[in-house]
Design brief:
Elements: H1 5-13, H2 16-21, E1 24-29, E2 32-38, H3 52-71, E3 75-84, E4 92-102, E5 106-116, E6 122-134
Antiparallel strand pairs: 1-2, 2-4, 3-6, 4-5, 5-6
Length: 137
């Protein structure tokens, strides 16, 4: 099976939670994946910033998609950590994940989470690292 942006879009569209959030795959392949979603009022916390759970979701999913570029389409998150650097205030969340190392069964990935403001200025707000495992039948 060829791993393409079109396949990644189909996989994302099959995830009800991703559909609920309106997540998009904007890049996929060559050891990386980029996911984006529009920041809406219902995704904010009490101080008006994007909720940390949304950042965690984006990191988890982007890391898993990136790992899939190295391991194939049937993968699961093995675990991840996230460090919040500053509040996420903007109009678009972008999660850019990259494979750092991969074997036949596991990939280690990093993810930078940034927000874009109305003028397109990007601000890094969190960094994550995780492992992705290949699921074999």
């Amino acid at each position: 099976m060829e791993l393409t942006l079109e396949l990644a879009e189909k996989v994302l569209a099959s995830q009800p939670f991703s559909v609920l959030l309106g997540t998009r795959v904007t890049a996929f392949g060559d050891g990386g994946a980029t996911l984006e979603l529009d920041i809406r009022d219902d995704l904010r916390q009490q101080n008006g910033y994007l909720h940390g759970g949304v950042l965690g979701y984006a990191a988890d999913n982007a890391i898993t998609f990136a790992g899939g570029t190295a391991l194939g389409p049937t993968v699961l998150t093995g675990g991840f950590t996230i460090n919040y650097l500053r509040p996420a205030a903007g109009v678009v969340l972008r999660a850019v994940a990259t494979v750092v190392q991969a074997s036949k069964r596991q990939a280690t990935c990093t993810c930078e989470l940034s927000v874009l403001d109305e003028d397109g200025v990007t601000t890094l707000c969190a960094i994550a690292q995780g492992t992705v495992i290949a699921v074999r039948g």
